[in-house]
Sequence to fold (232 residues):
Amino acid sequence: MLSVHDFTVGYGAVSAVRGIDLDVPEATVTGILGANGAGKTSTLMGIMRAAPRISGTLTVDGRDLSSATTREVVGAGVALCPQNRRLFAGMTIEENLVLGAQGASTAVTKVRLDEAYARTPWLAARRRESAGRLSGGQQQLVAIARALMSAPRLLMLDEPSSGLSPVAVIEVRELLEGICSSGLTVLLVEQNTHLVQRLCSSAYVLAEGRVVGHDTVENLVADDLLSDAYLG
Ligand code: ATP
Fold:
């Protein structure tokens, strides 16, 4: 469904992603693994067309988005749940969610809000509370719900378990298991190897901006590549 070829992402003179190829088949959960600084976040930002220097081919559903704007990528059905959640702390849960549905009609936004509240019922009860008052784990659940408000066909998640307590990681995992089993196509950047094993069917391993491995998660585990990915 998503395909990048000879994909490069850079910041001025710094090359963060150096000519990678990556395919995310429809209705699968694909992981991106790698040590700190390997280029995982830059890959996602490049796909969103939100980095200073991007080159190579990007296609979504066979549509060439290599020169697209971020808005066009979102319009093609791609959503990003960013690293560190990036909620608007002074806004309510519901206001944050509504921002994720930008461009949708009031009626459609209402339907999507109802879906989010059905998926995570406590969000409905606390929808008028400031997002900044929530725990890190609760904020992550809101951030995932916000990303889903655009009704994406491809959901990209950047380290959703980062900095969370073990209990919060379980809550995030349970939400993601539900989302993944619904058939949504997912691209997951994660450092938590248990989460990767639970959710992903296959994964790419990045090192210094290049793909150094791509296999089923089962094989990556068997070859010790999953743990090696974090040792750099
Ligand atoms: P982490 O797990 O720490 O988030 P990562 O695999 O996501 O790491 P990136 O954040 O994509 O890696 O960073 C890849 C490289 O690009 C690193 O060398 C980093 O220092 C550099 N980099 C990232 N963002 C910028 C920026 N805004 N300006 C300059 N260099 C950057």
About this structure: The chain is about 35% helix and 30% strand.
